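User: Last request for today: this protein with 2-acetamido-2-deoxy-beta-D-glucopyranose, please.
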Amino acid sequence: MRTPRRSLFLPTLAFVLLSSLPLRADASTSDAVLLSRAEAHEHNVHEHKMNMHEHVHSGTVLEHWNETLQLETHAPTPPSYFTLDFDNVPETEHKYTGLMFLHGLLMGLAFFVSLPAGIALRSVKHAWHGIAVASFYGFIAMGCASSALYTKLSPHLYEGQAHSRQGYLTILVAASLTIVDLLSIIRRIFAFVRSRQKFQLRTFWNSTILGRDETWLKDLTPEEYVGLVSEEPEEIELDDSGKGLASPTSSERRVHYDERTIHGSTAQWANDVNRAHSVTSERTLLGSRSMHSDDTLDVTKPSYRTAVGWKQRIGNAVFATVERSLVIAGFALVISGIVVYTGGCRENYITGCLAHLIKGGIFWCYGLLTFARYLGAYSDLGWSWNAPGDRSTPTAEFVEALVITLYGCTNTWLERLGALPGSPYTTKQIQHIGIAVMFWFAGLIGMALESKRLRRWVSTMTVASLPASVDRNSEAVAEPPSYRGSFNPFPALVIGVTGTAMAAHFQPYRFQVEIHMLWGNLLAGFAVLRFLTYFFLWLNPPRSLLPSRPPTEALASFCLAAGGMAFMLSTEEVTIAAMRRGRDDSMMFANVTVAITCLAFCWLVGVVGFKAFLRTRSSPKVSFHDTA
Ligand SMILES: *[C@@H]1O[C@H](CO)[C@@H](O)[C@H](O)[C@H]1NC(C)=O
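Assistant: Here's the final one, the structure of the complex with 2-acetamido-2-deoxy-beta-D-glucopyranose:
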C-alpha cells in the first residue's frame, strides 16, 4: 500500500507538521511519524500482520530485560576480551589490560595527533613534517607490538576478527603515501644533480628536501613552477569588484609586503569595495593576499590556477584526499577495535550492528566536518559560510546532496540483503527503504538546486516573459542578493526527517526506544538549527571571504555529531549490555555522548588552530580591520 515514491512526499509533509506530531515512540505511534494520525491506526494493523513471524510483537514495549526471551532467537553471548579483563570470564590468572590500554593510546596518538599534525605541517612544507611522519610510524610500531603481545598472552575470544586486517590495510595506504613523498624528494635530488648547480646546504635543504622552491628545475616552465609551489589552492585573491578570484595582473600585487603597505593598500582597496557595494557596511571585504613567504615567488606571473597541469592538480587532490581519509580510517579502526574487544557484532547481530555503526559513524564524521566548516577549515572553497573565493568549486550543499544521493542509492538495495528471496516485505524494510528512497530523490533535488545553469535558465525564462516596456538593464532585473549564497534546505530536511522518524522507531525495549529518541531528536535538532542558519544568512548573505561563523551552525554541528555518536550507541548489543548490567539509563548515555562530542570538538579546534597557526607563521603579516 505504501509505495517508496510516496515517501518522498510524506517526509516533506511530516516536517511541516513536525510540531504537531507526537515524537514519543510509544506503542500507538511505533513508527508512524511519517503518517498522519488518521493513517496511523491502519498502519499498526498492517505492521502487526507483518510482524507475526518476528519475535517482536507490535504494541508491546518491554520495560525490563528478559534473557529468556532473547535466547529464543539469539545464541548466548560468548565471552569477550572485555569480560576477560573486567569480569574474569573465562577465568585467567594473568590479565594484560595494560597492554590493550597502551595499544589504544599509542594508536590514538598516531592517528589523531601525529597524522593531523603531519597533514598541517605538509601544507606549509614545514621542516618538521618528517618528524611528524616518523612519530606516526613510531607510535604505530609500538602500538602493533603491544597488541600483538596482548593477543599472544590471551586466549582467542573473537573468531574471524577484521580489525587487524583493516589496520594493516590502513598502514599500507599510509606507507604508499610516504613512498610517493620519498619519490618526489628523490626526483628533486636527481633534478638538482642534473642542473649542476653550486651546492649550498641552505638552498639544497629548502628546495630539494622540503620542496619549497623549484625554480631551478629546468624541465619546468616558470608558469608550471608557480603552480607547483602553491600546491594547496588556498591562496585567494580578490579582483577589484570583490567578487571572485582573479589572477594577479598589476605589479602592485607583487609579493613584497611589509605591514604598513599591506594595511594601507588593503584599507584603501576595501574602501573601494565598500563604495561598490554600498548595501551594507557591516561586512567589509579584506584582502587576504597571497600567503607565500617565499620571496622568490613572483605572483605577477599569469594565473597559477590555469597554469597548473591538470595531472598535477588531480594528483595533489587525490593525495590530499587520501591523506585526510586516513584520519577517518583511524576512527573506523577505533570502532572496529572496540567491537572486537567487547565481542560485539557476532552471529546474527552482525547486520544491525554494521548498520548502526556505519551510519552512525557517517553522521558523526559529518558533524565533525560541519564543525570544521564552521571554524573556517574550508573557507578556501567557500564552505565556511563565507563568500566563495572561486565560484567554480562545487558548493558544500552540492557535495552534501551528492553524498546523500549516493547513500540513498546504495541503501535502497541493502535493506533487502538479509531477507530470504521471495519473502514478503516487512514493515521495517518498507520503512527503511522509504527513507533510502527519500535520500535518493531529495539528494537529486538538492543537487538540482545547486545548479547555476538551471537557475540561469529560470532567470532567463522570467526575463524573457517580461513585457517589452521593462528595461532589461534596470535594477529590477538584477540578481537578488540571495544569489550570492547557496540556500539549500534539502540535505538538512533529509536528516531532520530521518531523525524524527527514528525518534519514533519501534523497539522491543523501553530503553532502546529512549536511546533512539535521543539521537533521532538530536538529528532533528540539527535540521532546525541548519534552517535557522539559512534563515539568517538569507537575510544577509556573506560578503567577506572570512568565515562568517553563524552561531546556529556551531550548535547544528554539535547536534549532528552527538546524534551520530548516540546512533552508534543505540546498537542493539550496546543497549542489551547496558540492560544486562543495570546501566540502562538514557541520561547517562546522553551525558557520555555529549562528553565524547565535546572532546572531539576540542581536538578539532586544536587541529584547525594548529594549521592556521602554521599558515600565519609562514605568511606575511596581514592586518585585519574591523567592520564596526
Ligand atoms: C520472559 O519471556 C518469557 C518468554 O516469552 C516469558 O515466559 C517470561 O515470563 C518472561 N519473564 C519475565 C520476567 O517477564
